[in-house]
Design goal:
The protein has 241 residues and is of the alpha+beta class. 44% of the residues lie in helices and 23% in strands. A hairpin with a 5-residue loop joins strand 1 (83-90) and strand 2. The N and C termini lie close together (12 Å). The model has no long low-confidence stretch (mean pLDDT 91).
Length: 241
Protein backbone atom coordinates (compact mmCIF):
# COMPACT_ATOMS: atom_id res chain seq x y z
CA UNK A 1 0.00 0.00 0.00
CA UNK A 2 1.17 3.51 -0.70
CA UNK A 3 2.59 5.41 2.22
CA UNK A 4 -0.19 7.97 2.34
CA UNK A 5 -2.93 5.35 2.49
CA UNK A 6 -1.26 2.55 4.48
CA UNK A 7 -2.97 3.22 7.79
CA UNK A 8 -6.40 3.90 6.30
CA UNK A 9 -6.24 0.68 4.29
CA UNK A 10 -5.20 -1.37 7.33
CA UNK A 11 -8.10 0.03 9.35
CA UNK A 12 -10.49 -0.63 6.47
CA UNK A 13 -9.27 -4.23 6.22
CA UNK A 14 -9.68 -4.80 9.95
CA UNK A 15 -13.19 -3.39 9.77
CA UNK A 16 -14.12 -5.73 6.94
CA UNK A 17 -12.77 -8.69 8.90
CA UNK A 18 -14.92 -7.74 11.89
CA UNK A 19 -17.99 -7.53 9.66
CA UNK A 20 -17.35 -11.05 8.38
CA UNK A 21 -16.40 -12.62 11.70
CA UNK A 22 -18.46 -15.80 11.22
CA UNK A 23 -16.77 -16.55 7.92
CA UNK A 24 -13.42 -15.64 9.47
CA UNK A 25 -13.92 -18.24 12.20
CA UNK A 26 -14.49 -20.95 9.60
CA UNK A 27 -11.44 -20.00 7.54
CA UNK A 28 -9.14 -19.64 10.51
CA UNK A 29 -10.33 -22.98 11.90
CA UNK A 30 -9.28 -24.60 8.61
CA UNK A 31 -5.84 -23.00 8.84
CA UNK A 32 -5.43 -24.14 12.45
CA UNK A 33 -6.38 -27.70 11.50
CA UNK A 34 -3.92 -27.83 8.60
CA UNK A 35 -1.15 -26.23 10.67
CA UNK A 36 -1.67 -28.73 13.50
CA UNK A 37 -1.71 -31.63 11.05
CA UNK A 38 1.57 -30.52 9.46
CA UNK A 39 3.52 -29.47 12.55
CA UNK A 40 1.76 -30.84 15.63
CA UNK A 41 -0.69 -29.39 18.11
CA UNK A 42 1.73 -27.45 20.33
CA UNK A 43 1.86 -23.84 19.17
CA UNK A 44 5.08 -23.37 21.11
CA UNK A 45 6.86 -25.70 18.69
CA UNK A 46 4.79 -25.01 15.58
CA UNK A 47 5.22 -21.43 14.24
CA UNK A 48 2.50 -21.79 11.63
CA UNK A 49 0.02 -22.91 14.27
CA UNK A 50 1.08 -20.06 16.55
CA UNK A 51 0.38 -17.51 13.80
CA UNK A 52 -3.03 -19.10 13.11
CA UNK A 53 -3.98 -19.17 16.80
CA UNK A 54 -2.90 -15.53 17.20
CA UNK A 55 -5.10 -14.63 14.24
CA UNK A 56 -8.01 -16.52 15.83
CA UNK A 57 -7.56 -14.64 19.10
CA UNK A 58 -7.40 -11.39 17.15
CA UNK A 59 -11.00 -11.89 15.97
CA UNK A 60 -12.12 -13.18 19.40
CA UNK A 61 -12.61 -16.75 18.23
CA UNK A 62 -13.76 -18.84 21.22
CA UNK A 63 -11.09 -21.03 22.81
CA UNK A 64 -13.19 -24.18 22.42
CA UNK A 65 -13.35 -23.63 18.65
CA UNK A 66 -9.58 -23.19 18.53
CA UNK A 67 -9.05 -26.37 20.57
CA UNK A 68 -11.47 -28.33 18.38
CA UNK A 69 -9.66 -27.23 15.21
CA UNK A 70 -6.32 -28.29 16.69
CA UNK A 71 -7.68 -31.69 17.69
CA UNK A 72 -9.02 -32.24 14.18
CA UNK A 73 -5.53 -31.57 12.86
CA UNK A 74 -3.79 -33.91 15.30
CA UNK A 75 -6.34 -36.67 14.70
CA UNK A 76 -7.92 -36.56 18.17
CA UNK A 77 -11.20 -35.64 16.47
CA UNK A 78 -12.43 -36.62 13.03
CA UNK A 79 -11.92 -33.87 10.46
CA UNK A 80 -11.78 -33.08 6.75
CA UNK A 81 -8.53 -33.67 4.85
CA UNK A 82 -7.72 -30.31 3.24
CA UNK A 83 -5.28 -29.68 0.40
CA UNK A 84 -3.46 -26.36 -0.05
CA UNK A 85 -3.62 -24.84 -3.51
CA UNK A 86 -2.80 -21.40 -4.94
CA UNK A 87 -4.33 -19.71 -7.97
CA UNK A 88 -2.84 -16.71 -9.72
CA UNK A 89 -4.51 -14.19 -11.95
CA UNK A 90 -5.19 -10.60 -12.93
CA UNK A 91 -7.81 -8.09 -11.90
CA UNK A 92 -8.86 -4.73 -13.30
CA UNK A 93 -6.08 -3.03 -15.24
CA UNK A 94 -3.84 -6.08 -14.93
CA UNK A 95 -3.40 -5.84 -11.14
CA UNK A 96 -1.89 -9.07 -9.81
CA UNK A 97 -3.96 -11.34 -7.57
CA UNK A 98 -2.99 -14.51 -5.74
CA UNK A 99 -5.65 -16.68 -4.10
CA UNK A 100 -4.63 -19.23 -1.46
CA UNK A 101 -7.17 -21.98 -0.81
CA UNK A 102 -7.72 -24.95 1.47
CA UNK A 103 -10.05 -27.45 -0.13
CA UNK A 104 -11.30 -31.00 -0.06
CA UNK A 105 -12.37 -30.77 -3.71
CA UNK A 106 -9.96 -29.14 -6.19
CA UNK A 107 -12.42 -29.41 -9.09
CA UNK A 108 -15.04 -27.42 -7.22
CA UNK A 109 -12.56 -24.83 -6.00
CA UNK A 110 -10.91 -24.07 -9.33
CA UNK A 111 -14.32 -23.74 -10.99
CA UNK A 112 -15.53 -21.28 -8.33
CA UNK A 113 -12.34 -19.20 -8.44
CA UNK A 114 -12.34 -19.06 -12.25
CA UNK A 115 -16.01 -18.07 -12.28
CA UNK A 116 -15.36 -15.19 -9.86
CA UNK A 117 -12.45 -13.92 -11.97
CA UNK A 118 -14.46 -14.11 -15.19
CA UNK A 119 -17.67 -12.60 -13.77
CA UNK A 120 -15.99 -9.55 -12.28
CA UNK A 121 -13.58 -8.52 -15.01
CA UNK A 122 -10.45 -10.49 -14.16
CA UNK A 123 -8.85 -13.58 -15.59
CA UNK A 124 -7.01 -16.61 -14.28
CA UNK A 125 -3.30 -16.88 -14.99
CA UNK A 126 -0.95 -19.83 -15.11
CA UNK A 127 1.13 -21.01 -12.16
CA UNK A 128 3.98 -18.56 -11.60
CA UNK A 129 2.39 -15.79 -13.64
CA UNK A 130 2.25 -13.22 -10.81
CA UNK A 131 3.95 -14.73 -7.75
CA UNK A 132 7.22 -12.99 -8.65
CA UNK A 133 5.47 -9.67 -7.90
CA UNK A 134 5.23 -10.54 -4.20
CA UNK A 135 7.66 -11.13 -1.33
CA UNK A 136 6.98 -13.83 1.25
CA UNK A 137 7.62 -12.13 4.59
CA UNK A 138 6.35 -11.21 8.02
CA UNK A 139 4.71 -7.79 8.23
CA UNK A 140 3.72 -5.70 11.24
CA UNK A 141 2.11 -2.25 11.20
CA UNK A 142 2.40 0.10 14.18
CA UNK A 143 0.13 3.07 14.78
CA UNK A 144 1.07 6.64 13.92
CA UNK A 145 2.69 8.25 16.95
CA UNK A 146 4.79 5.20 17.83
CA UNK A 147 8.34 6.14 18.91
CA UNK A 148 10.12 5.57 15.62
CA UNK A 149 13.70 5.51 16.91
CA UNK A 150 12.94 3.19 19.83
CA UNK A 151 10.91 0.82 17.65
CA UNK A 152 13.63 0.73 15.02
CA UNK A 153 16.29 -0.11 17.61
CA UNK A 154 14.13 -2.85 19.13
CA UNK A 155 13.21 -4.28 15.72
CA UNK A 156 16.80 -4.42 14.49
CA UNK A 157 17.93 -6.01 17.75
CA UNK A 158 15.15 -8.59 17.45
CA UNK A 159 16.24 -9.56 13.92
CA UNK A 160 13.85 -7.65 11.67
CA UNK A 161 14.85 -7.24 8.02
CA UNK A 162 13.56 -3.72 7.50
CA UNK A 163 11.71 -0.85 9.18
CA UNK A 164 9.82 1.73 7.10
CA UNK A 165 8.00 4.87 8.18
CA UNK A 166 5.03 5.74 5.97
CA UNK A 167 3.84 9.21 4.99
CA UNK A 168 0.84 8.84 7.33
CA UNK A 169 3.12 8.20 10.33
CA UNK A 170 2.47 4.48 10.63
CA UNK A 171 5.55 2.27 10.86
CA UNK A 172 6.03 -1.03 9.05
CA UNK A 173 8.38 -3.76 10.28
CA UNK A 174 9.35 -6.52 7.86
CA UNK A 175 10.78 -9.89 8.93
CA UNK A 176 11.67 -13.18 7.35
CA UNK A 177 8.68 -15.57 7.39
CA UNK A 178 10.32 -17.87 9.93
CA UNK A 179 11.35 -14.95 12.15
CA UNK A 180 7.93 -13.31 12.42
CA UNK A 181 6.90 -14.81 15.76
CA UNK A 182 10.31 -14.27 17.36
CA UNK A 183 10.44 -10.62 16.31
CA UNK A 184 6.79 -10.00 17.23
CA UNK A 185 7.29 -11.48 20.71
CA UNK A 186 10.46 -9.43 21.24
CA UNK A 187 8.75 -6.20 20.19
CA UNK A 188 5.72 -6.84 22.39
CA UNK A 189 8.06 -7.57 25.30
CA UNK A 190 9.68 -4.19 24.61
CA UNK A 191 6.27 -2.49 24.75
CA UNK A 192 5.50 -2.31 21.02
CA UNK A 193 2.24 -4.04 20.09
CA UNK A 194 1.41 -4.02 16.39
CA UNK A 195 -2.04 -2.99 15.23
CA UNK A 196 -1.74 -5.56 12.46
CA UNK A 197 0.65 -8.42 11.88
CA UNK A 198 0.86 -11.55 9.76
CA UNK A 199 3.03 -13.70 7.54
CA UNK A 200 2.01 -12.55 4.11
CA UNK A 201 2.86 -12.14 0.44
CA UNK A 202 3.72 -8.44 0.28
CA UNK A 203 3.47 -6.80 -3.16
CA UNK A 204 6.77 -5.45 -4.47
CA UNK A 205 4.88 -2.63 -6.21
CA UNK A 206 1.27 -1.44 -6.20
CA UNK A 207 -1.55 -0.45 -8.52
CA UNK A 208 -3.66 2.37 -7.09
CA UNK A 209 -7.34 2.51 -8.04
CA UNK A 210 -9.88 5.30 -7.69
CA UNK A 211 -13.48 5.83 -8.74
CA UNK A 212 -15.26 3.19 -10.77
CA UNK A 213 -12.14 1.08 -11.25
CA UNK A 214 -11.74 0.86 -7.48
CA UNK A 215 -15.36 -0.25 -7.14
CA UNK A 216 -14.93 -2.91 -9.83
CA UNK A 217 -11.71 -4.20 -8.31
CA UNK A 218 -13.25 -4.41 -4.86
CA UNK A 219 -16.19 -6.39 -6.23
CA UNK A 220 -13.77 -8.93 -7.72
CA UNK A 221 -11.82 -9.22 -4.46
CA UNK A 222 -15.05 -9.56 -2.46
CA UNK A 223 -16.32 -12.31 -4.77
CA UNK A 224 -13.10 -14.27 -4.28
CA UNK A 225 -13.00 -13.66 -0.54
CA UNK A 226 -16.58 -14.89 -0.13
CA UNK A 227 -15.75 -18.32 -1.53
CA UNK A 228 -15.69 -20.92 1.25
CA UNK A 229 -12.43 -22.49 0.09
CA UNK A 230 -10.49 -19.22 -0.15
CA UNK A 231 -8.20 -18.53 2.80
CA UNK A 232 -6.14 -15.51 1.77
CA UNK A 233 -6.04 -13.06 -1.12
CA UNK A 234 -2.93 -11.08 -2.00
CA UNK A 235 -3.02 -8.28 -4.55
CA UNK A 236 -1.01 -5.39 -5.89
CA UNK A 237 -4.23 -3.36 -5.99
CA UNK A 238 -4.79 -0.53 -3.52
CA UNK A 239 -8.19 1.14 -3.43
CA UNK A 240 -8.48 4.82 -2.55
CA UNK A 241 -10.89 4.87 0.38
Amino acid sequence: MAGHSKWANIQHRKGRQDEKRGAAFSKIAKEITVAAKMGGGDAGFNPRLRVAVDKAKGVNMPKDKIDTAIKKGTGELEGVDYVEIRYEGYGIGGAAIMVDCLTDNKTRTVAEVRHAFNKYGGNMGTEGSVVFQFKHCGQMIFAPGTDEAALMDAAIEAGAEDVNTNDDGSIEVITGPADFITVKDALEAAGFKPEFGEVTMKPESENEFTGEDAVRMQKLLDALENLDDVQEIYTTAVMDE
